[in-house]
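Aim 2 progress update. The chain analyzed this quarter is reproduced below.
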Amino acid sequence: MIKLTVIIPTFNEEAYIEDALFSVAFADEIIVVDSFSTDKTPEIAKKYATKFLQRKFDNFSNQKNFALKEATGDWVLFVDADERVTHSLEAEIKETLQNPKHGGYKINFPHFYMNRFLYHHSDDVLRLVKREGAVFSGTVHEKLHCEGSIGKLKNKMLHFTYKGLENYISKKESYAWFQAQQQFDKGKKTTWFHLLFKPSYRFFRSFILKGGFRDGVPGMTVAAVNAYGVFERYVKLMLLHKKSR
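Predicted structure tokens:
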């Protein structure tokens, strides 16, 4: 019988982690890898997790790869603390694993913001994979790799990623530092093209091309903050070069 491991990375997620753990209770193994939370996250997670691990955070890929080495299931599902597996998605995962046709499966994530799900601001992300050969790369917006072809599940994963505008902007600024460092290490530099065109295009892509305008004010807000995040990335890259002189 095929066994499923769920891996959940955490840091100060006491308001979200319990519901996430409830939503994946069907898994054969649940691993929580925590970045030394200072709130009640460890206390809550230990009640439900098969394995509770702690590791000092350096980047997202290393954190998840560390937990991946501890997994014993044939397949692994990666879930964040602010995400929820619905009953329909649970049923589809169980059915899929009875006779998997691919080495990994993408899941669609409609984001929740301003009390609504933004179905025109969603992403298809590889989250369900065979454990053997699976690995993450990249320091931020890490990419999961798996052996074999990739399919897509029909049902969606709920994502409560935006915990208010201030938190959303703070999250983008944090990611911007990781992305800037990654580009700095590759020798890339900031140009006027990056500062002017790239943020504008990100807004256009999110609000127009992806249909964010259909989500009204929340869609416009998300598009604007995404554009701001791109701008911040290149400003921080410019600062890193100045510090290195």
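The radius of gyration is 19 Å. The chain has a mean pLDDT of 91. These observations will guide the mutagenesis experiments scheduled for the next reporting period.
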